[in-house]
Structure to design on (401 residues):
């Protein structure tokens, strides 16, 4: 228990960086969502990414409510903010800040996300309307360059915080076992199983059955065979961004998708499509509520879904970036941030599963959008070796652009 202050310092460092990293990473993501890219293909990609992420969060919350990870372990000193739960109408209005600066000072995460997205999209629209060499265009490009630089600086600071996290996590886990004993092992196991089951259901039901079998009409087995290199890489290096070259290679050579689709959808997916991460944020929120002796109302769970959905847009595709985003989700519903330090010790293992889920989602959405836009050859690559039952559903390749 004497080591607790070291763990508390780690939690404070996480709190320190959450608002800057939200602002920089979300603005960086909006740069990729320029009107030029948001045509027919871009709109389909973005909508499918948002839809699969929302389903993933709902899947995580549903499995969590059934398994109740963390039940049976109670911490004495938790910072749960008790009080009346605002109505759904109030929650919606609270998303729009009366004063963005005040929202930042008060840590109103949803309001910060809303204003940042609106401001970023506004800059992309103005940039598309003005002359290429105008002062306004140059100014906006400069702002985006500063944002990119700021995001890189924040990633470096996150790296430093996570390096200190080796000590911080050790201290928090030592204090945890000193307070609650061996029952913490059961809580960790239930958390891990909840995530594994939710990811299994997301991949099997959403990606393979609904998207690949239903929307594309091809063999789920062939699809998995076509993306196996990307999945193995994601499991190994825990980074959606670092896996991107392998994902693009699989899309091109194995899935036979044209570059005009995967060249846009996969880099964008590495930025905004974090199904596994968003799912995990919802699961951790239920876990935190259980060990804090609190219960989440329907409105609070809907708030978690919305917050996790918006936060996933700006989550960096680097190992354990979700630990930083958890701060925003837990803060939004008033749950103890100490939980972040408690689960950081097993996060490297769980992060591998989340990254694999993210990559599977990127590839599934890319495949269905390619099918909708006649940008996939379903007679070659992995599809050529598909079982005979799928042969009648294949279509002829389109001519190269």
């Amino acid at each position: 228990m004497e080591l607790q202050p070291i763990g508390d310092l780690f939690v404070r460092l996480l709190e320190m960086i959450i608002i800057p990293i939200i602002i920089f990473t979300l603005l960086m993501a909006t740069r990729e969502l320029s009107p030029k890219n948001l045509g027919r293909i871009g709109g389909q990609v973005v909508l499918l990414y948002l839809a699969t992420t929302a389903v993933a969060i709902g899947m995580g919350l549903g499995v969590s409510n059934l398994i109740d990870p963390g039940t049976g372990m109670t911490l004495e000193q938790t910072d749960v903010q008790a009080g009346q739960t605002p109505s759904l109408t109030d929650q919606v209005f609270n998303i729009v800040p009366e004063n963005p600066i005040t929202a930042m000072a008060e840590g109103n995460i949803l309001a910060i996300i809303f204003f940042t997205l609106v401001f970023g999209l506004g800059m992309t629209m103005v940039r598309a309307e003005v002359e290429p060499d105008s002062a306004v265009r140059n100014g906006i490009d400069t702002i985006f360059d500063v944002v990119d630089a700021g995001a890189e600086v924040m990633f470096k600071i996150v790296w430093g915080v996570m390096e200190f996290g080796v000590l911080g996590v050790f201290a928090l886990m030592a204090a945890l076992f000193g307070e609650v004993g061996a029952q913490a092992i059961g809580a960790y196991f239930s958390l891990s199983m909840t995530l594994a089951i939710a990811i299994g259901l997301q991949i099997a039901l959403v990606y393979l059955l609904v998207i690949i079998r239903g929307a594309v009409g091809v063999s789920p087995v062939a699809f998995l065979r076509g993306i196996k290199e990307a999945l193995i890489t994601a499991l190994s290096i825990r980074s959606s961004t670092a896996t991107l070259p392998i994902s693009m290679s699989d899309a091109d050579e194995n899935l036979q998708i044209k570059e005009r689709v995967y060249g846009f959808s996969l880099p964008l997916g590495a930025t905004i499509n974090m199904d596994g991460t968003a799912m995990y944020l919802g699961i951790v929120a239920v876990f935190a509520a259980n060990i804090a002796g609190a219960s989440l109302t329907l409105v609070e769970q809907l708030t978690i879904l919305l917050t996790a959905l918006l936060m996933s847009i700006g989550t960096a595709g680097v190992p354990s970036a979700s630990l930083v985003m958890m701060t925003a989700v837990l803060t939004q519903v008033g749950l103890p941030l100490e939980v972040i330090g408690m689960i950081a010790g097993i996060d490297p293992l769980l992060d591998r599963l989340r990254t694999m889920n993210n990559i599977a989602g990127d590839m599934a959405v890319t495949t269905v959008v390619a099918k909708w836009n006649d940008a996939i050859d379903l007679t070659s690559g992995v599809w050529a070796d598909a079982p005979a039952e799928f042969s009648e559903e294949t279509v002829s390749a389109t001519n190269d652009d």
